[in-house]
Amino acid sequence: MSSPIRFGVFTFLQRETKSLDRKLFVLTATSGMANALNLAVINASVEALRNGGPSWQHFLWFCLSIGLFVYSFRYVLYESTRIAEAAICSVRVRLADKIRRSDLLTLESIGEADIHARITRDTGAIAQAARPLFAVAQAVVMIVFTIIYIATVSPIAMLLCVTLIAGGAGIYLKDRKHYEEGLNNASKQEDKLFDSLNGLLRGFKELRINKLKSDDVFEDFHATAAQVRESRTSVMILFSNNVIFIEMFFVILLGAIAFVLPILSDSFSTSATKIVAAILFFFGPLVNVVTMIPVLAQVNVTVDNLGRLEATLDEGLEKSAEWETSPLTDFGAFRTIRLEGVGFTYRDSDGNATFQVGPIDGEVRRGEILFLVGGNGSGKTTFMKLFTALYRPAQGGIRVDDVEIGPTNIQSYRNLFSAIFTDFHLFDKLHGLKDAAPERVNALLRLMEISHKTVFGDGRFSNIQLSTGQRKRLALVVSYLEDKAIYIFDEVAADQDPQFRRYFYETLLPEMKGAGKTVVVVSHDDRYFHVADRVLQMDYGTLLNLPRTAIQGGNPRKRPTARGKKPTSQEPGQ
Ligand SMILES: Nc1ncnc2c1ncn2[C@@H]1O[C@H](COP(=O)(O)OP(=O)(O)OP(=O)(O)O)[C@@H](O)[C@H]1O
């Protein structure tokens, strides 16, 4: 059975930092007690006015209680800030690490918007809530001690106060499920809102030139925003009712002390001022505690969201646990890569197959240029993801010479490749290539005719705001510098001008082959098929070897140098 009040955030902070130690809890309690002590000392000092005024002991107690309060409360606030920020940093770094080690398919199934929302919005919400929660914990202790103080003055007044607080707690517990359900719904709708916003930003150009489309998308966004508003408003109204109830109860309590207690107890009038002062003293903190209730509920939802994301990542990582610790093997001198009955199936959320690639049997030899052709959606990119082991085959396996690729050497296998997929990302730094000499990088930029747009210096490119074709040329430079055994180019030549396209097919690829590289190119450029040693065709997920005669349909020509001129450096042919 779950506990009636969930302090998911404290569990989360402890798990992430292991810093919720006894000292923090003792000082949280101390600051609450010291605050209550402030009240007791002030009340005693005021009472002493009747008998000649407060003594130096009163003053000493006052200094002691205020000193204790300032020291302990300061410690609690400083420490809770440090703990909250450390916890957020730790969970962000850990999730980023799990993401980078995850399966591509796992990430594709979670979706970008979900990951963004968890790591930015949800962790941010926890950081914001954690510090006030410690202040509230302090307030709870202070309220408890103030009530004990009231009990020493008038047990009946104490009973009334306890009734007030028990009533408030009862109402919260009654509505807790509604809070969390409502906030959970709002959080899911906010995820949709993020998705919708992504569409608005990524599809901006299409929307800006098409008013009808823009209106439609905006309407969707508006509807989702309205759903979020509805969910959050209904939760907050429920919560506001509770605050009003508490306020009303408070006034009723003060009224009861003024009107009812004097009837019940003859001696009450002497202590009435003390009790009223005590109630006024704890009322502020009590309202703070009540206002934190929805924040606590919200944090529980975000902690749950983070837990779910991590569990999904862990599930994928569990299957590849031993992959990470295995030492890397250098397969760079391979002769043949064999695919033996490799198959893969995309499935929808109900587990139904939506598209199947394979089973594929075949081999790729060292130093070959392979072209992969096929219609849209025929499975070329999926095949490349299988070949590079970004997707794990559902059936069959891959062998490098005589070595079977499995959990222990899959990372070594992936290290054979440098790939430019159609949705490649350009980093402005040369990550993983710390020793790249700027002169060499800049010479390649000149060779690719983009040196007037970007320069490499201080470990980064000066500009990556380039045209689509220029971005691909820059990607080629980076890929070339990676100096891997196998290159995968998915439609890299598609956005290039005719001269560069010719240079790419007729100079760059043969020179890479000459340097012992294996190159697999996804291409629709049939006039350059003669460059390939073999042309493979993907047809509805089945891989076929195109016969030589079919390739001759291409346009075998003399191989000129780049755009009619010799490359300015030895690279890339060397
Ligand atoms: N992440 C995914 N989840 C589910 N289905 C997918 C996913 N990626 C691709 N598919 C489906 O798999 C099929 C093959 O897609 P793939 O991207 O491999 O084709 P392609 O030959 O590279 O196409 P194109 O030439 O248009 O780039 C398509 O029907 C596509 O809808």
From TrEMBL:
SUPFAM superfamilies: ABC transporter transmembrane region, P-loop containing nucleoside triphosphate hydrolases. Residues 549-574 are annotated as: Disordered. PANTHER family: ATP-BINDING CASSETTE SUB-FAMILY B, ATP-BINDING CASSETTE SUB-FAMILY B MEMBER 6. InterPro entries: AAA+_ATPase, ABC1_TM_dom, ABC1_TM_sf, ABC_transporter-like_ATP-bd, Cyc_pep_transpt_SyrD/YojI, P-loop_NTPase, Type_1_exporter. GO terms for molecular function: ABC-type transporter activity; ATP binding; ATP hydrolysis activity; ATPase-coupled lipid transmembrane transporter activity; peptide transmembrane transporter activity. It is a multi-pass membrane protein. GO terms for biological process: peptide transport. The keyword ATP-binding applies. It comes from the Bacteria. Its main location: membrane. Signal peptide: none annotated. SMART domains: AAA (SM00382). Residues 556-566 have a biased composition (Basic residues). This is Cyclic peptide export ABC transporter. It is found in: Cell membrane. Residues 24-298 form the ABC transmembrane type-1 domain. It holds the Pfam family ABC_tran. GO terms for cellular component: plasma membrane. Keywords: ATP-binding, Membrane, Nucleotide-binding, Transmembrane, Transmembrane helix. The chain crosses the membrane at residues 24-46, 58-77, 133-150, 156-173, 239-263, 275-297. Residues 337-565 form the ABC transporter domain.
